Amino acid sequence: MTITKGMSARLTASNGKSPSPDWMATLHLTDENSAQDFAMAADGSGGFEIELTPAQTSSLGAGAKDFAVKATKGGQAVIIAKGRLEVLPDPTQAGDKRTQDEKDLAAVEKAIRDIIAGGAVQSYSIQTTVGQRQLTRMTLEELRAERRQLLRITGKSPDRWRPIKPCFGDYHHYRLRR
């Protein structure tokens, strides 16, 4: 599920049972840096809904978020929906629209180019939204391993081979198709 910053978004949640009218629901959006809660309204068919305004979606940080819809009544509470939500940057705003993983990948690729072009470099700094992440004295092989991991995470890996372990025997490599 994706939403775009600065745009309206409608979210619904239901656990398949019709809750009584005195149940309340809250949408919880969390990531490693923040947590935001939004009150949801009953939708009349046993679930809950919320229409996020452009101002509300603008307040969200771009990137992956965990979401959970928690329904409560008195001392009872139940999670009726949970999962991952991708918040896309506002396409009308200026600025770097890459995800943090894409920014990290660019920094690692720059470090690899610097080593190849200029010899040994002692340290690299990668700026993250959490703060400064310092990578010190990484060898070329360590940087290439980090690059491979970030390529897989961002989905930009040209390598379509993936090790698959069968029930018996050694690892075999199979070519995956899109």
Tell me about this structure.
The longest helix is centred in the middle third of the chain and has 19 residues, at 100-118. The chain has three helices and eleven strands, in the order E-E-E-E-E-H-E-E-H-E-E-H-E-E. It starts with a strand and ends with a strand. It has two domains: 2-88, Immunoglobulins (Immunoglobulin-like, Sandwich), CATH 2.60.40.10; 100-159, Head-to-tail joining protein W, gpW (2-Layer Sandwich), CATH 3.30.1580. The protein is α+β, with helices and mostly antiparallel strands and 178 residues long. Helix 2 (100-118) packs antiparallel against helix 3 (140-154). A seven-stranded mixed beta sheet has the order 1-7-6-3-4-5-2. A two-stranded antiparallel ribbon has the order 8-9. It has a two-stranded antiparallel ribbon with strand order 10-11.
